[in-house]
Each structure stands twice: as C-alpha cells, then as structure tokens.
Design goal:
By secondary structure, the protein is mostly beta strands. 9% of the residues lie in helices and 39% in strands. The chain is elongated. The two termini are 16 Å apart.
C-alpha cells in the first residue's frame, strides 16, 4: 500500500536561492563577494590533519624507551616515505643491525623517550567545497566558507539518498504516473539527471548506476527496493552520505505514487537546464529535505513570474528580496510588457507594486518572489 505525506514541501517556479557552503574547519576561501561562480567550481578548501600511526621503536629494536631518540634516523617535523628506515641500532662492528621501517608516508610528529614510541602522521586530507549552484557570492564567512545566491526553480522532495550532484535535466517518461523502468535508461543519459513518474524499480536504479546517470527524480520508491539498494534497513536517520553511485530524490512518498502534476510539469519545463540535486534527508529535529535546484543561466530562461499556483498576475502577493525595499510585502498592480533599461544598462522586465504601507514602487521582476503556497500531494 502506498503512503503519501503532506509536510508542506516547497515547490517554487522562481525564487531567490541562497546556499551556505561551509568547510568543516577553517581553511582558505578562493572567491570574493560579487564573484560569479559555476556549480562545480571550488569556492573554499582546507586540509584535514592526516591520520596518526604509532610505531613502538623500543619494542621493535629491543632498546630502552629513554634511548629511543638516539636510534631514530629522522627528527620531529621531517618527512618520511613508506618503508624508509625510521630507526636502527648500531649493531656489532657495523653488522647485525636491527631496523624499524615506516609503515606510511608522512611526517614525524613526535618521538617519546617515555613510551619508546614514534608518532607518525599521514599526509593531510584535502577538503574542497564547491558552489553547488551557478550563482554569485553574496557573503564570506571568515575562512570557513561563502554564501552563494542564485535565482531559479526550487523543489523539495519528501525523501532522498546520496549527496550533492550536478547534471542536465531530462524527463524520460510521458506522464507523472508512468514508472521509471530500466529500458528507459539509455547510453546518452550518462551524466544527466533523469525524471521519472510514479515509481522507480531497483533494476532501473542499477541500470542508471551502470550507465553513469548522476541522479533520479521520481514520485515514489518501494521500501523493499530501497532496502535492496542500500543493503540494510534504513531507520530514522540522516541520509545523504550513501556511496551508491547515484543520488535519488523522491517527491511524494513510499510506494507507487503519481508525481504531483505541478512538480512534473515544472521539471518538464526545465528540461535541458543544468540542475543541482541533493538527497540529504533528516526527519527528526532540524528537518532537512532533499532538493532540486535549477538556476536560470541567462535572461532567455528568466521566468520570474510563476510559482505553484500559476503565473504572476495583477493582485499576486509578493515579497521584495533586494534592497532598498528588502522584506517589504505588497501586491502586483501592473505588469508592463516592454523591457525597461536599468542604470547598469541591462534591459529587464519590470512590475509595479503597491506595498503594505500604500507606497507604489517599480522593480525588476527578479527582485521579488511570490509568497508561495504549500504543496499538498
């Protein structure tokens, strides 16, 4: 039996999307405020300390612990290669020497005459944070990371597995109630994000993995297929760290559930655009939902005028999302068709707004977002 959930998932045809891109520790930020970044561009990097290895020189060479530093061939802070001699005895007349070799490549971090051990540290582990979406950098958080802002389509799912990935969006089914089956996965789908309908089978997921598909978006999945895919029963936990070779976003629930028409139609409109998805899900406190982000890459794709309920029109409630009227609420009073030239020289479509305090202003359509409705599947 299928089970659908109605948590008020966000499905917006056009909105400002802000993503914090943070390192797990302080590092180096590679971009500045105002920079335009690509989704796959590294915006910050750091080096995690390498793992530690202990080598008991006293035991290996059968020497007193308090004399260990006399036998080591390296000093603290020096590098060493795997299998290189780390310590050795003098032997008898230069013969019959005992040796201890390094089990890793790394550096000598400590030599202890108390324990008789040498502490080696493996090379640092590089960590890189990518922008995740095409957009611009609006804030720098010290040496920890940045905030990237984009305008585009934003859709939340009910459940997902797998982390962040990026690819071109393609709908491979004819309707939102059509299942995504293995025969629909073709060689030309490599590196793409595919949209199905009501459900995806385990065979189809495996075919997608083999074919190099980056991600799948579907209405539902059978819990049996999910268990078979992961190899274990998924309890109430945080997903997103699964290393299965693909990211899956489920928009409606468990079982065979027709994808919501508005979600399916919106994804179909966005075919061919670069799309970022993230399957990370957290059900407990601090709820995190899987997401689909489709930034508009040029003015040709800039359709700021619609959300779930329909297109932007007279009397549509909106919120201003840029200064100097940031946060103000109002309603649309006019939608001129002609493009208007801004001070920057760019020509854009505008709208006229009556704010809650009665003031009348004119803004680019990209400077507002519609006060969104809630999805109920």
């Amino acid at each position: 039996m299928a089970h659908a959930y109605t948590p008020g998932l966000k499905v917006s045809k056009g909105m400002t999307i802000r993503k914090e891109r943070r390192l797990p520790l302080e590092g180096e930020v590679l971009v500045g405020v105002g920079d335009n970044v690509r989704a796959d561009e590294v915006v910050a990097k750091a080096d995690l300390p390498g793992n530690v290895q202990l080598v008991n020189i006293a035991n290996l060479l059968s020497v007193p612990a308090n004399d260990v530093d006399e036998y080591t061939t390296k000093k603290v802070g020096e590098g060493i290669e795997k299998d290189e001699i780390l310590a050795e005895t003098k032997g008898i007349f230069g013969l019959f020497k005992s040796q201890a070799r390094s089990p890793i490549s790394g550096t000598v971090e400590n030599i202890s005459n108390v324990t008789g051990q040498v502490i080696l540290r493996e090379p640092p582990i590089p960590v890189e944070v990518r922008a995740y979406v095409d957009g611009s950098v609006t804030d720098i958080a010290g040496n920890d990371g940045v905030t990237v802002e984009a305008y585009g389509t934003y859709i939340q799912g009910i459940f997902g597995i797998g982390g962040e990935t990026l690819g071109t969006l393609e709908v491979v089914v004819s309707s939102p109630d059509a299942p995504l089956t293995s025969d629909l996965i073709q060689p030309e789908h490599r590196d793409k994000i595919l949209v199905g309908g009501s459900i995806v089978s385990h065979d189809a997921i495996q075919a997608a993995i083999r074919g190099g598909v980056r991600g799948l978006i579907v209405g539902g999945i059978d819990d049996k297929d999910l268990r078979e895919l992961l190899g274990y029963e998924l309890g109430v936990a945080i997903t997103g760290s699964e290393d299965i070779g693909i990211t899956l976003v489920v928009t409606e629930g468990f079982g065979k559930i027709r994808m919501a028409d508005r979600t399916f139609d919106l994804l179909k409109e966005r075919q061919g655009l670069k799309t970022s998805i993230n399957g990370t899900t957290q059900i407990r406190a601090g709820v995190v939902r899987p997401e689909i982000v489709v930034p508009f890459e040029s003015s040709e794709h800039l359709i700021e005028d619609a959300v779930i309920a329909g297109k932007l029109e007279i009397d549509t409630p909106i919120r201003v999302i840029r200064e100097p009227y940031f946060g103000n609420l109002g309603r649309v009073t006019a939608l001129p068709v002609e493009l208007q030239q801004l001070e920057t020289g760019a020509k854009v479509r505008i709208l006229e707004i009556e704010l809650e305090d009665g003031a009348h202003i004119t803004l680019p359509r990209a400077n507002v977002e519609i006060i969104e409705e809630t999805q109920s599947t």
